Protein 1
Amino acid sequence: MSNPTTKPEGKYSFLLKHEDYWAIWLGAIILIFSMFIFFGNSPANMDKIIADSNATMKAEAEKAPFKTMAWFDANAAKTNLKGSSAPLAKSVTKYFAVPATWSNDNPMKSFFLSDSDAKAKSAASADKYAQTKAATAKAKDAASVAEKAASSAGFKDTTLNKEADTKIAAWQKAKAAEAKAKTAAETKPYNYLVTMLVLLIALAILFAVGRYFMGDSVGKFLVAFPAVFIVAALSFFIGGHEFAKAWGLEYVMWAIILGFLVSNTIGTPKWIMPAVQTEYYIKTGLVLMGATILMNKILLIGIPGIFVTWVVTPIVLITTFWFGQKILKIESPTLNIVISADMSVSGVSAAISAAAACRAKKEELTLAVGISIAFTAVMMVVMPMVIKALGMNPVLGGAWIGGTVDSTGAVVAAGEILGPVARDVAATIKMIQNILIGLMAFGIAAYWALVVEVDKTRKVDLSFSAAMREVWDRFPKFVLGFIGASILFTFIYSGMGADTSKVLIDNGTSSFLGSLQKWFFALAFASIGLSTNFREFGKYFKGGKPAILYVCGQSFNLALTFVMGYIMFMKIFPSITAKLMM
Amino acid sequence: MYALREFLTTQRNGLRLNKYLKLILSLVLLYTFVTVGLPNLSKLAGFTKQHQIIIDEKIEAGAWFYIFVEQIREIEPRVSHTLKYSPGSQSISKD
């Protein structure tokens, strides 16, 4: 049990007593741990495979006017290098697993798959795997013949080139189908109930350390934590239903709803409240998220990508916020900025970051997330329909989707409905937009500290140092951890080089941190639900202004993103569009 | 006094039972909404085909950050390699 009064009060004791700092310390511990796991355990022959693959792709690209079979093999060899495949990484990350996807025929599959069930599933999929394997071999032979024919003509015969390109595409499609069938045919048993129990204990201890130094009762926290964790785990279960996933209704929403059901029926028992720590979980999760906001990615698709994301998005964000303040006259600027951010930047991730940066109320964050999820569920299906109906270029269509649909998963889903080129462009644009979150959160935190909250304080001392001190006092300190982690990992990424970083960071630390982040945010949203009265929402939705703000802002976003995408991809940089179409 | 205490305790227990019943009913409704409501809503909205693609491709449509989307791990290198090693290009960009 804690007894804060007995602890010494040093000059820097505030570093151990404030939640923001604890978010940074816990985040730092996890980041160091992840670097220890991945940076010292790179896959065997990584450097050689990368060098060989690059050399092959370069040579093949110079040789033929289409992506040859060797080009695709080299791309696959390089892409398959994953830091997360290392034995140590696997043995740790298995404890971060969330309940699996399930369908109506077997809900328990979400938590547990027995050895016999796994074998039965493997056996049932064996035939399909054999068929797809044979189909791939056949497609590969056909592609090989076509490519040789094109090669014999020195790649100068357009008909033969086109034929080879088509056959190679068919081979790639067959390979993808085979990979899917192979996964089903090699189903392994699992028991997430055990791994979740280990995770529960580990997270309870981790977060309890912070609570101890902050002066809370560790005993009460440890007793309460499992209850919040169970709500979080159930939210993953509900969100794991195949149709919940198809609708884009993820655990975040279910965690709030499950929490609501408890707090608005039986009432959240008092003994659970010590672990209902929304901000503590969110801030720690955001520090981890900082390490995955890698500035190196902003040039992935060249200048057009920068314009569609880093130029359009801030314009839409600022305009929507202004519209909400001046035209709609939304009473709460924090609600306004959270909705503006989630609509213009990237949905839930931006809403969480913005809400934490401006200290928005939990009801405001919930409302913004709810609106975003509802509109995204419709937009991700309707937008591909509209794009198809208009006969739009897939690169432009993909850029339009990537710049406007809120969540990354929905962007990939919408792109998939349109086709592979649109999917790849949409996902890349969205990823570049995701990177904007760090700068956005810092900007919002600074704006709130410098402008919005100024009127609330009395200006006794007008000196520069006093003003700076006040700004510092108001500034949410965890944002420094968020930005610091982003800067640190951006430098590490640059230092390692893009290829090595892809293996050890993108497919290493980022996947590790991502799995853990999901749990932190699930705990946060479960806490929101458990501490919120449903009736309180009415006042935030007054006059339907939040929905009007979202609709108006999104309409502007759709128009501006389309115009910018058209100018960039169709008029100024058609060569990039042509390359992406290959 | 004893009878009164018993009466009040019983009343409170009864009230509690109602609250727990509400919670259980709510959870059952939620489960029904997900397992029965959402698939039928897909049909009703005319989204069946699109949703089936998302299910078949195992896309986490609700994933709200790029690191949570498994497909991104293949998409990103494919796009970057496509632009860096563009087929037919005479001038391949240097590292």
Protein 2
Amino acid sequence: MRPSYFINFMMGIYIFIFFAYLFGPLIIMSITAFNSAEFPSITPWECFSFRWFNEGKIAYDGQHLAGLLTDWRLHDGIISSLIIGAGVVTLSVPIGMAAAIVLTQVRSQLRDIFYSISIMPVLFPGVIIGISTVVLWDRLAGLGGEGFISDIGRNGIFLTILAQTCFISTYCFLIFVARLQRFDQTQEEAALDLGASQTQVFFKILVPYLSPAIASAAVIAFLFSFENYNTTVFSILSDQTLTTVIASKVRLGISPALSALALTIIALTIIAAATYEVLRRRAEKRYKDTQEKFVKEKAADNRINKNYKIGFKVPRGIVTILILVVFTIYGATQILKNDLYGQSCIDAADTEKKSKFYDQLNALDAIELSEEELSGGELGGNQDYGDIFGDPSLFQDFGGFD
Amino acid sequence: MSADVELSDVSVTFGSFYAAKNVNVKVNGGEFFSFLGPSGCGKTTLLRAISGFQEPSEGKVLIDNKDMSGIGPNKRPTALIFQNLALFPLMSVSENIAFSLEVRGVSKEERKKRADELLELIALEGQGDKKVHQLSGGQKQRVAIARALAVEPKVLLLDEPLSALDLKLRQRMRTELREIQKRVNITFIYITHDQGEALTMSDRIAVMNEGELEQIGKCDEVYNNPLTPFVATFVGENNPLYGKVTGIDGDKAQIETADGQYLAMMNESKKLNIGDESIAFVRPESLFIPRDGDNFDNKINVNIESFEFEGNLKNFYARLQSGAKIKFSVPNAIDTSTISSGSSIALGFDSSKSVILPKASLAID
């Protein structure tokens, strides 16, 4: 075995472990979305079903477990998350851009100070930003009496937009700073010299130059806003965003509907990323083609105009695709062979669980308790805790509320 | 449609540093005028003062006899061509050229018409839809000129626009620039550190050093009658011969150096007295290997050290007895097979081809 082969092999194993660590939980979670059981699980596998993507189910114990399509709390959360995301994008992109432009105009030591202040919000814990926003606006709302200020000061969506903008505009700022560092300032001067006003220079020269940064800042601002929890949980007050809904669900016990939601989000992300990549490659190819045409036009001889035959090449990533195909086929055959899909399977599983549940209820009913047992002793009664709040020394050391 | 440009006592300071000091120039309308000087001599600062990017700390800039103080670059009748051209990479060639019309609210058809006219002027017809990065260096150059001419400025300012081009292209662009200037007939103010560029294109040149004007004049005037040792050595090449004035005869002066006595022309405005520390200058092409019948009034003995073939010229590097270096050039057509390294020969030069100036620092120091 040649050493390079060995190193490649170890590298392959390392990469496999790395990606398994990264994507393993996501893959497991995605699979649980298709299991009809009440808890997200792979084993025991109950039935293959899409129920968590649409209506959900009434559990054997009578609890309603909503699916993705019927969960109105989730829908409300998504809607407010989208509104907040849009608000954060409209606020933080201009703020970040303005700060970055100011930074390019400032020379001297003030520049460092300005930069440090600008990136400071990223270093604050999100919790503190959330709480301080609420505290500030609660005071402001209290000052104004009844009216507009008091309304928006206690509006969770408004406060969340402000709180998130605090630190998200900093990320936008950093994106713009990176782009502006490569800006050739003589272009501004050239435009001015050609008679453009400062406003025209801004809209005709600077904004077109910054447009890729504007796009990426908007995307990043939206994503940061959409997934934020620690700031939002305080500033959202009585409203709910997607993250706070999910968090409250986790506290009550999660249902596979969350897996279904996760899978949907993952799928949307992958589709968006793939579309972007395809478009980017197409644009790159177009650029390359025009460049090549231009070079060929210019070249006097035909020395670059040769046709190189490209031999057949196995596409990279074929191994990954093969492994995925094999696993899918294996999983599908197992499900088909054991009849673990379709309504009949779900009905059977439900009937079984229901009968077990009723068995347990019946067993409970069978226990008969006497009056004496209910009022005291091992199984009940409140005698042991009787009158604990009557203790006069209980609040002796308590300083009281501020 | 050309205008006079006048700098009256213009100084530009950055802190305690004088980028330009008491500059007085009058550029006539329709003239091709060059500022020539080494990098850091303040010529770009002057250009920025004319275009309005830099307000002079003292003095005034007058264009068409109008004081330009407080008038921004977008309101002056000047157009600037930047050293890096500063074409707008996201726009097509036509859009670049018509930018100045666009910001003035000229209609789209009008803009296209004007852009096509200008494309014709710079011999790039039909290439208006190309992107800037698809053009070659010389084409970009011409687009920058067309863009600057689109607003019909009265003065075109050029900040070393040819410095990024290769030699052949640079030579061709010199001719083209000159032709474009004649066709549009506006004032060109050109900034360069390349004396070849300045001499071939300009009507007049101003030589600058450390923020101050050394000499203004026609090209041959500056070349043949430099006013200072700096100009003598910066414009073209010159061999300095250090010494003291020992005699004055009309417009000629005799200088006594460590290697002998030479006669040289005095400048009218730089009169010398006997005993003054001075430098006589003689150009490499004015030093000749004497042939029969030649009668030079100055003779100089040198030791050949090395030789360099330039193509049209052969350059010889030699030393005088005192150790001072001297360079002389011989046209390629002349046979020099008898001269070899280490050999000692006598050269001659005419006193009318040599100038003597009061001692001051040289450009090559």
